[in-house]
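Pasting as-is:
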Amino acid sequence: MNIIVSEEIKSVCPNFVGACVEAQVVNSPFCQDLWSDIRQQANIFKASLTTESLKEIPSIAATRKVYKACGKDPSRYRPAAEALVRRMIQGKDLYQIDTLVDMLNLASIVFGNSIGGFDADYFVGDTLTLGIGRAGEPYEGIGRGMINIEGLPVYRDAEGGVGTPTSDHERTRIRLSTTHLVVLVNGYDGDTEHVRQNAEYILQLINMYAYGKGGKYFLYK
């Protein structure tokens, strides 16, 4: 994949750094060992965070700041990483979807970065561009129907939007049949080492839980 960070994103987040992780995988409906890891992380959050203090985690705070700079209310259109940690703090279980999605949710909550996971076979073209959602731009969020992405950071392929920090698009969503996985890690706080560690952690999870082959990643700005 080629990843382009647009000037409109650079204008509101000049220190942005991302990572693109790519691997051949085997998905499954459920993984008990993975869910043991998720529940262990939930216990850590419940003991150490509140719904207010989680907003101060640097990666989450930076994503909220970019939302505001783009004109979006982060408390109404909550970034997914924040929403997931918030559920855990409130004592609620995460939604169990499938191994790949559950695995990426874990990677997102551990590091606090916005993460998008995609079935790369459904991309149109070989280039993704990170921009800002426009008024009236059509976008079908996974399980959400049509949503308003005006003012949200959005990745677009040759056909249109595929991912935002609030929800990825139905067209390129991960399926049980997914074998070609692409994951995008968004470091709106500009912490290159944090993004690198997040990408390496994702590769570890892929190898542990999704029979990963040929896994690799690269950073982009």
